[in-house]
Amino acid sequence: MKLLTLLKSIQPLKIVGDTEKEITSIAFDTAKVFEGSMFVAQKGTNVDGHTFISAAVEKGACAVVLSDENFLPSQADKITYILVKDTHYALGMLAHCWYGCPSEKLALVGVTGTNGKTTTATLLYELAEALGYKAGLLSTVCNYVHTQALPSTHTTPDALAINELLAQMVQEGCEYAFMEVSSHSLAQQRVAGLHFKGGIFTNLTRDHIDYHKTFENYRDTKKLLFDNLSKDAFAITNKDDKNGLYMLQNCKAKTYTYSLQSMADYKAKILEINFDGTTLDLNGHEITMRLVGKFNVSNFLGIYAAAMALGFDSEETLRALSAVKPVNGRFETIYSPKGWVAIVDYAHTPDALENVLETINEVCLHNKHIQRNIITIVGCGGNRDKGKRPMMARIAYDKSNQAILTSDNPRDEEPMDILNDMLTAFDEKEKKKVLVIENRQTAIQTACTMAQKGDVILVAGKGHEDYQIIKGVKHHFDDHEIVKAYI
C-alpha cells in the first residue's frame, strides 16, 4: 500500500522524508519488521519502542511512526519519519486502513465490563450462527472466523491482529462479529479506528487496579467504548449495576437497559433454578436456559437485548438461546458417581466469586436434597492487584462451609506470599478453619476426597485456562482434568 494512502488515516504532526514509497507491512515489534515495513514505535509499560527504531531500520523498515520528537531527525535519506501525537492510536487507525476497514463491512458488537464479557460475546456468536448467519468472535477463550477456531492469547488482541481477524471474517462472508473489549485495550487504543455497530456493558467491580491505579480510572476507561459510539449504533447497559447508567452519559447511540430488579427495556424474573439451568420470565416469555444463576440471567438479558437491536426474530432468538451451553470454564458442572458435584468457574475477582457462591447457595436453597456442604478452592494471581487477595479469601470463607486457599497463577511471586496475603482476612480463630494447600492439584484432590453425597465443590479462578505460570514458566494445568481424573 502507498505510504500516502496510509497517512490519510492519521493526522501527522510532522513528516520528514518521501511519502511516495510503497509499504510492505506494518509492525510494532522489530521481530516482525522486514524490507519495506512501516515500524510504529510505541511506549509500553516496561519498554519504549522508540529505542528500537535503529534496529527496525537495520532490518529494512522504510518508514517510522513515532511520538517522541527526540527521535525525529532533521532530515532523512531513505527513511520516512512520521511524528504523531499518540502512536497507539495511530497504529489502530493504520491497521484498520491496511486491512481495508473491515469493521465497516460487518456489524461489530463490543462487550465490556468486569465479568460476563466472554459469556455474552460467545453466546451472541453462537446465536448468530444458530440463526443461519455467518459470524466471527474475538474472545478470551477462543477466536472464531465463522466455524474456524483460532487460538486466543489476550482478551483483546493488538490492533493489527484485531483487524487481520476482522478482515478474515469479511473475506469468509461474515455478517456479524462479536468481541470482548477489555479495559487494557481501551486504554492502549487497540480498538482505535474500529466502527462498532453496538456496545454492551455487563457490570463493573474491582479489577486491574494494579494497571489503572484507581477504580474511577478503570470505570472511565470502560466508558470510552460508549463515548465513541456513533448515533447509528446502539448501547445496551445493565441497569442493576450502579455504573450502568453512567456508561450512557454523553452517549450518542440509541440506548437500551436491562434489569432483574427494576423497570427496564428488558426485564427478567427467575422462576426456577438448579445446577442444570434456570427458568425465567423475560418480558412475558417463559424460557428455560442452560445457564445458572442471577449473573447469567443478567448476561442472558444483555444478549437478548443485543439480538433485538440487531433485528433478529424474537421467537427464533429465544428458541436458539434456550439450547446454548455454558461457555468453557464458566459455571461448568462435573458430576461424581458418589453424588457430589464440582463446579469449575473462572471467577477471579471478588464480585465474580461472590456471584458464583451466591448462585450455588441459591440452588442449594431451592433444592433441599442436594444441600450439605460447599467446599471452595480459590487462589489469587501473582503480580496483580494485591488488595483483592483478602477480599477473595473472606468471600470464600463466609459463603462456604470449607475454604481451601491454594495457588492460582503465582507468576513471579512466591505462592506462599500470595497465600499469606489472603490469610490477612482472618483472625487466629478463623485461620484454624481454613485449609492452606499451596499445590493446586493437591488442593483439588483434597476437596474431592472430603466431598460427601450432596456436597458442592467450587474450583474457582482459572476456568478455561489450561496452564499455571510459576516463576515465569507456563506449565500445563487444567482444573477440569484434575477433577475428572479423581472421579
Structure in words:
The chain has 487 residues and is an alpha/beta fold. The protein folds into three domains: 3-97, MurE/MurF, N-terminal domain (Udp-n-acetylmuramoylalanyl-d-glutamate--2,6- Diaminopimelate Ligase, Chain: A, domain 1, 3-Layer(aba) Sandwich); 100-321, Mur-like, catalytic domain (UDP-N-acetylmuramoyl-L-alanine:D-glutamate ligase); 332-486, Mur ligase, C-terminal domain (Protein-Tyrosine Phosphatase, Chain A). Helices cover 32% and strands 22% of the residues. It has 16 helices and 24 strands. The protein has helices at residues 3-7, 53-58, 87-98, 117-130, 159-172, 183-187, 209-212, 215-227, 294-309, 314-321, 350-366, 388-398, 415-423, 428-431, 440-450, 479-486; strands spanning 14-16, 25-27, 37-40, 63-66, 80-83, 107-112, 135-138, 142-145, 148-151, 176-180, 198-201, 234-238, 254-259, 266-274, 277-282, 285-289, 332-335, 341-345, 374-378, 402-405, 435-436, 456-460, 467-470, 473-476. The protein has an eleven-stranded mixed β-sheet with strand order 9-8-7-10-6-11-12-13-14-15-16, sandwiched between helices. Strands 17-18-22-19-20-21 form a six-stranded mixed β-sheet, sandwiched between helices. The protein is globular and about 80 Å long. It starts with a helix and ends with a helix.
